[in-house]
Amino acid sequence: MITPMCTPITKSILQEKRGGDCYSKRLNKDSTWVRKQEESFVRFIEVMNRFRRKNSAQNTHKRCVHCWLNLSKANVDAVLSAWRDFYVPVVCSPENNARYPAEMFLSIEFVNWLVTHVHDLASRKAAVEFGNELVRLDRIRILQSGDRENDEVDSCKSSDCRSREFRYGFVLCYFVDEHTQDETNWSRAVQCEFGRHCGDILAECAFHLSAVEMDFPIQSSKGSDNMRQYPYLPPHLLQYVEWGRMLFNRTYTATQAFEINIRWFMANGQTIAEITRHLCTKATNLSFHMFPIPEDPFAHAMNPQSPPL
């Protein structure tokens, strides 16, 4: 579980002793803090997906800002051209064997850029609607896996219509042009919406868990000598693939805890420990608290003194 690292609020909770439900009351009023938390959370999700930012000459020589002063949503080509010159692509790390478009961008960064540089898109809502219009015109696409039935937790599958919408958050998008691959079987990735709240009581909960299957990174300590203990593997396989499932909330809100659940099907304890330690370190560096929560409060039903973790 990930929570914001707010030392002043934590101290006030301990000193005033009026309960711990004061995060949203105090922090929702600070828009700057919320924006910084969202930016840090974007970096954290990139770590979970093993993504990185592409450094290229295109991004080191930005177009003059004056070229963007007269941008209008009516001129789609000009808006997309200016955005291409500005954004820093999200790409897959070399050690990741997943299949993704060559260059992707995040909807949250695109929306914030539209609000700042397109004069008739002054609100986030208007920018999101413009993004949905670009999807309908097939100028941009939302990253989707061809195997939709395995992309969600069985008990809370989201509708296919919802998954095709342009939403504000860590939603991966890519351009459609003559170089775009006609690929429908992209790998799955951790994606979530930002700031969405549950609406009608009969509507689907915004904080239900989603799930993606992914290969776990190979630990450096596993050399070829260690593979000899698996004689049942075919001789052409240098190492076996460790993989599992990552469960996470569909929506991230800066003032609410975000749940992450790692379940492994083909992995050993060392791999899971290294992944967990790596995520905890990155969370701390990005100003988050990350701590374990018990899935079963009684690890041993017959022993009330057993530790739940």
UniProtKB/TrEMBL annotation:
Residues forming the DEP domain are 105-172
Q: SUPFAM superfamilies from the xrefs?
A: Winged helix' DNA-binding domain
Question: What InterPro entries does the record point to?
Answer: DEP_dom, DEPDC5_CTD, IML1, WH-like_DNA-bd_sf, WH_DNA-bd_sf
Annotated Gene Ontology cellular components are: GATOR1 complex; lysosomal membrane
The record's section on Pfam families has: DEPDC5_CTD (PF19418)
* Any GO BP annotation: intracellular signal transduction
The molecular function terms of the Gene Ontology recorded here are: GTPase activator activity
State the source organism's domain of life. Eukaryota
Q: What is this protein called?
A: DEP domain-containing protein
Organism this protein belongs to:
Anisakis simplex
